[in-house]
Amino acid sequence: MKPTLFRDRVKLYARAGNGGHGCVSFRREKFIPKGGPDGGDGGHGGSVILRCDANEDSLLPIYYEPHRKAKHAQHGMGSNCHGRNSDDCIVKVAPGTVVSDVETGEWVGELIQEGDELMVAKGGKGGIGNARFKSSTNRAPRQFTEGTSGDEVVLWLELKLISDVGLVGYPNAGKSTLLTKLTQAHPKVASYPFTTLNPIVGTLEYEDFGRLKIADIPGLIDGAHEGVGLGHHFLRHIERARFLLFVLDMAGSDGREPLDDYLHLKEELTLHREALATTPYAIVANKMDSPEADEKLAVFEREIGEPIYAISAELEEGLEPIKKHLYDHFFGRRFNSIDS
Fold first, then answer.
1. Which residues lie below 8 Å from residue 65, measured CB to CB, with a gap of 6+?
2. Which segments of the chain have a pLDDT < 70?
3. CATH for 165-331, among 3.20.20.150, 3.30.470.20, 3.40.50.300, 3.50.50.60?
4. Residue of 110, 156, 172, 283 with fewest CB within 10 Å of its CB?
5. Which runs of E-coded beta strand occur in 64-209?
6. What is the greatest pairwise CA distance in the chain?
7. What is the pLDDT of residues 114-128, one digit of tens each?
């Protein structure tokens, strides 16, 4: 059985620690037989806190360890000794994690930036010892309070990858090959559809140390906005992309028509979330090394009337203009290649 290497939706069972009980105690020493009350307070229970960590890129650790518990606090003791507070349970999550309640579906919060924290289960409050109840009219109190119970919740954690550029296209359009040639990422590449089953992020680096994160989204199919072919799981990773590259198979493999693919892809994104219709984009015509590509490209250009980047990702042809376009879009100044 192949191990699971990526998870973008997991269930978290979080239980905070209980607060310690207050103590009922009286001072008793050799020459002080009837000392006053000296019962200490209970400590506070630990909380369960989600912390955003840029080194995390998946929710896989939580998938394998879904139950996270903070320890209970120590009870109060005599001699005015308070119970020790318990440590918080810190759960590291990847940037872009959205948290919601399992039962109600209510949005709880999200973690975007490095170091962001979200308390999902608050620890119980410590009880009060009898020393706190001492007064001029109550010299020997036996009252105390118990510590409160910590929260216990069940949450959905969903990861929406944060990337600068999202690669969008049908299966077998060459998105993974393009990501490999633009970045140092090494996704699985094969000549059959749905080779990529999980989002993969690579980094495009420029000479002036400019960096762009590019996400390879698994191939979409018609009806993705309704969840067909795990469409909801794939489409949510595009929501945070600041720029989209529509990668089209201009060779028309598997009997596909590039023009129909492009129109259907735009429709699927708009139906999933209307805001995606306003996301800046560029069109990439891939597999231009195929004999049929030139004819289909001419038809496509005539119908669409938009700038198109004709490339062959496999042969690394036509990639430089794409790099220039992305650089100018994100950094606002002309790109200078090594060859210029």
1. none
2. 1-5, 185-197, 219-234, 333-340
3. 3.40.50.300
4. 156
5. 67-69, 89-93, 97-101, 107-111, 117-121, 152-159, 165-168, 200-205
6. 105
7. 999 999 999 999 999
